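User: My instructor asked us to take a sequence, write out its structure as tokens, and then describe one feature of it. I'm not sure where to start. Here is the sequence I was given:
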Amino acid sequence: MEDFSKYIEHTLLKQDAVKADFIKLFDEAKKYGFLGVCINPAYVKYAKEYLLGTNIKIVTVVGFPLGANLTQVKAFEAQKAVEDGADEIDMVINVSAIKNKEWDYVLEDIEEVKKACGKVPLKVILETDLLSSDEIEKACILCIEAKADFVKTSTGFVKNGVGAKEEDVKKMAELVKPYGLKVKASGGIRDRQKAEELIRAGADRLGTSSGVQIVSD
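Assistant: Let's start with the prediction itself. The structure tokens for your sequence are:
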């Protein structure tokens, strides 16, 4: 298997994280050569300053973790994050709207955030633990239509959720890759074996807080 570091977005999204935790995250990203760090929006500007002069991508989240924010709020949040220095945006899809089959709403929700991102890549978190196979397929189709750049499995915040599953990643990859989109697997990725399985299944990125353990195994 190739070098794992180029797949990993070293992630810290805990509510109670303090500045020292972020410094540790950023220093580990530099030490292990991780592709990026994934953090909450409030720390994007600080990350930009701390990681100045590196190639480490600063990834942040929008509508996190429920995805139930108003579209205008998600779009504003994305725009502000880009202004603060975010290199990529991970938005949470509106799961409730998917369950209600409000496809036009879901499509517009993604389109408006994509527009707010400008040239910054947009990943759409599907929250696969909460969706059926058919709903995952429909969500992927909407992401293609909205011209998103990635589909992503999970927030990691679903109670008793599994997170990224090999079969879901494979399905997502088969659906979106012919249209130029990529796949980010996240949630429950804690060891090298799981990381390898997901990459083989089609993951282009891994969102995990266990990056150091994975590259050190």
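For the description part of your assignment, you could build on this observation: DSSP finds nine helices and eight strands in the chain. Try explaining in your own words what that tells you about the chain.
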